[in-house]
Amino acid sequence: MSAPLRKPAWLKVRAPGGPNYAEVRRLMSDLALHTVCEEARCPNVGECWEHRAATFMVLGDVCTRNCTYCAVAHGTPTPYDADEPRRLAEAVARLGLRHVVITSVDRDDLPNGGAEIFAQCVVEIRRRLPDTSVEVLIPDFKGSDEALSIVVEARPDILNHNLETIERLYRIARPGGRYDRALRLLGRARELAPDSLTKSGLICGLGEEWDELLTAIRDLRAREVDIITLGQYLRPSGQHLPVARYYTPAEFAELKREGLRLGFRHVEAGPLVRSSYHAWEQAQQAAAVG
Asked: Which of 64, 146, 152, 263 is deepest in the core (most CB within 10 A)?
């Protein structure tokens, strides 16, 4: 067995802390809310929370799928909390967010995969803060058009579904997902809401070849996705897929150039980039491109 790759210096981050970080952490605890920042062990949690930005994770903290790169717990989830959208909107108001990102665990145990909760979150936020833009990072809902329509009809400003990896690695990395299903969802979202922004992301370093990564990027652009994020895979634990390689900052810069050449409105690419990293800036820049 080969030794794990040594993490390069450009992936080192400062330990989280600071007054805003502590305040956000208290607020999430007080309102019994989850964030993907904590559950997925995001390396940017310190930076984002200090800027009073967080990605809310609804429908509990236990996922019904078992993606082999993801730190979120998996198993049998508890019943969903119908009051969660109200508390989430309260947190958004108390934080004074101008842009909010909402994601979830996969809930394949629910009839529409929890789509109604996403929609209710959008409605509750808009009722309190009509000028706050809302981004939803949704599961694939097993390809259900009905579930997708429920979310789209709530009119989020950005609909995001992460492709995550190349087609060849799907059975290894995302055994509960399907490459073509993810692409179809994004294409269908564009058809249902042609004036809204769509977004997707890819993890780099799971074992893909460069040409395969470029093919996935082109597949997303073929579905008229507006925003793409590209970041380095970091192994959450010894039980997860190992890092196959670390991409350099120069390689991420090349991927960004390629994405812009293909016509994406915005490309966020870098070693520490995650789907909602600087999401408020991504939304503004993509909207400005028009």
From this structure: 152
